[in-house]
Structure formats: C-alpha cells, structure tokens
Amino acid sequence: MKYKLKHVYDPSLPNQINDFINYLGTIKGKSNNTIDAYKFDLVLFFRFLKLYRGMVSDDTEFESIEIKDIDNDFIRSLTLSDLYAFLAFVENYRDNGNYARARKVATLRSFFRFLQGKAKIIDDNPTLELEAPKINKRNPVYLTLDESKKLLDSIQGKNKERDYCIVTLFLNCGLRLSELCGINISKIKGDTLTVIGKGNKERTIYLNKACIKAIHNYLQVRNANADKIKDKDALFISRNNTRINKRTVEMLVKKYVDKANLDTDKYTPHKLRHTAATLMYKYGDVDIRSLQQILGHENVSTTQIYTHVDNEKLREAVRSNPLSEEYEDDLELFETNK
Fold first, then answer.
1. What residue spans define the domains of the chain?
2. How far is C-alpha 100 from the chain's CA centre?
3. Which of 51, 82, 294, 303 is 20 to 30 A from 189 (CA-CA)?
4. Which one from 198, 254, 255, 271 is the annotated catalytic residue?
5. CATH number for the 145-312 domain, one of 1.10.443.10, 3.40.50.12370, 3.40.50.2000, 1.10.12.10?
6. Backbone dihedral region of 95: left (phi > 0), alpha (psi from -120 to 50 degrees) or beta?
7. Please, where are the H alpha helices in the chain?
C-alpha cells in the first residue's frame, strides 16, 4: 500500500524547522498554504542570519545559502537585535511593506514559542519583546449590488451554466477560492452545503434560492457527460473532465469582470467573497457573529472590517435618533449657508 504524506521531511532544512512544520500540520491543523508561508519566512530568516553573521562570503548568491547546518546552539545565541536586523533587511532589500513584515513577525513568534514550549530547545524567547509594524486597517474592496448584477449578466458562452453557478456561489455564500474548488456533490443536502475551510475545518453553508437554482441548472449540463467525468463527486469540472483548479476559476472570473467593464486588477475571487459579506451585512441585517460563522473566520476581529464599509447605514442610524426629527429641515439650510 502506498501512503501519500502531507508533509515530507525536507533534508535541506534544519531539524528544528521540519519539526515545527510537522507540528503546524498535525497538531495545529494549519493549511498547506499557511505552512508554505511559514517555511518561506524561516528559510529567508536563517539565510539572512548566516550572511549577517559572516558565516558565508558576501558574494554568495542569497538563494543558494544552505541552512541545514543550523543547530540548537546557533538558535540559542539569537537575540532581539538579530530579529530587528532581519526585519530591517526585508524592508530595505526586499521591499517588504508593513503587512509582509507583520506576517514575518507572526512567523517568528510562532516558531520561537514552539522551540521554547514544545521542543524545549530554548529557555529564553527573544520574540517576547518583538514588536510588529503598525498596520492601518484597510476597508475591503467589493462590488456594489448593481455591479454584482452586471457581472452575473455578463456570463455567456460554452460553460455559462458552470461559470454562472461559480460566480453565484461566490457572491451569495462568501466562499474562499479553495472551498469552492473543493465542493463535492455528496456534501450538498437540500439547502445546505458542507465545505472544508482553513485549518481543515468543516463548516456548513446555507444556500439561498439563487444558489439552489444555479446548482440545479448546472448539474443538468454537467450530468449529461457524467460518463466522461473522472472525479465523480466533484461539483465543478474542467474541460479535461477533472475537478476544476484555482487558476481556472481565477481566469474565468477575470474574463467576466472584464466583459462587465469592471476593474480586472481589482476584482478577484477573493474580492467576490468580500462582496458577499458586504451585501449580507448591508442588506440582510446580519449581525457580526453570524457573519463570522458564515465566512468561517476564526477570530471576530477579522470579520469586523465589514462593519466599516457602509457609511449610509451609519448615517441612517444617526438620523433614526428621535431627537433628530425636530431639526430635519435644517440640513438644507446648513448646505445653503456654507
């Protein structure tokens, strides 16, 4: 019997990183994308340290610096100054902005917590005093209701039933790209859909009438060629009769965004997820905790960005104050006298 390992031991990495990666996957349940990001940051970190400490010559190609010889003594010697030197390096030589550097701080904190608390390699954790760059909150980019309808109206052509269903699920359910590609027919029961989200966590999506109708119309076309389909349980099928991949979905979204005369650089599948969340919050009177569950956010602070996008809702909330009625005619007078 052959076994397909999720995380294979990488001989080019120090044991400490390999152990950390296995811990993230098996204990913490992190996704492959998250684990790859941690790995990338740590490889960059240790390559920099070897260069910074003069352990390789200055003319060595950075990407070729080997780090498999990193041992526990080297890790114990690291200080807070080394960490800040690394952050200065990625800012000045790799053009990392605040978001990219903040992610690297998160990676280092998680890694050194593991080394101290789980691996018992270090007694003192240098990241305890490590500050992350200040990040200004950014409002999510999203389509308006009219733009969303315009995007749906633009879907035509050979795969229109499939593509219409894909965009409809994005705009109504707030699915992640990986969740949409991974949908199985067996996981659709009536008006519910079960998906596997970040961290390999399962969650239930409730389907509205638009989604149910779009899925029904697409399945009629899909099942007409059922004998050719290789992955029988996959909902969305590519032209090769295999499960659709993320790149294909990205390209078809870009195509219809362009056809609808919208900004192709601005509106990606992830922005359609933002759109679903914004429309639910704006028109559905969805409270923040419910929206958190719908989107599969681990922390409600992630969901709170959607509470800042609707200025009209805030304006109406203030206008609804009963004390406002007495002065409702004064706004026009104020505008005239400005």
1. 15-129, 145-312
2. 14
3. 303
4. 198
5. 1.10.443.10
6. left
7. 15-26, 32-52, 72-76, 80-92, 98-117, 145-153, 160-173, 177-181, 209-222, 246-259, 269-283, 288-295, 300-303, 311-319, 330-337
Cα(242)–Cα(235) distance, integer angstroms: 10
Q: Is 99 a catalytic residue?
A: no
Give dist(CA 66, CA 14) in Å, integer.
10
Q: Residue holding tokens 């101290």? A: 116
Q: What is the pTM of this model?
A: 0.61
What distance in Å separates the CA atoms of residue 164 and residue 168, rounded to the nearest whole number? Answer: 6
**315 flagged as catalytic:** no
The DSSP call for residue 231 is S
Residue tagged 């509205």 (tokens): 208
What would the pLDDT profile of 65-89 be if each residue is shown by its tens digit?
999 999 999 999 999 999 999 999 9
Query: Closest Cα to residue 296, out of 329, 265, 273?
Result: 273
Q: Is 222 tagged catalytic?
A: no
> Looking at domain 15-129, what is its CATH homologous superfamily?
Tyrosine recombinase, N-terminal domain (1.10.150.130)
Concerning whether 270 is annotated as a catalytic residue, the answer is yes
- Do the domains 145-312 and 15-129 match in fold? no
Task: Please state, in angstroms and rounded to a whole number, the distance separating the CA atoms of residues 167 and 155.
Answer: 9
Q: Quote the CA–CA distance of 91 and 292 in Å, as a whole number.
A: 33
Does the active-site annotation cover 306?
Answer: yes
User: pLDDT tens across 123-173, in order?
Assistant: 999 999 999 888 766 667 778 889 999 999 999 988 999 999 999 998 888
- Burial of 305 (C-beta count, 10 Å sphere; 0-12/13-18/19+): middle
The secondary structure of 161-175 as a DSSP string is HHHHHHHHHHHHH--
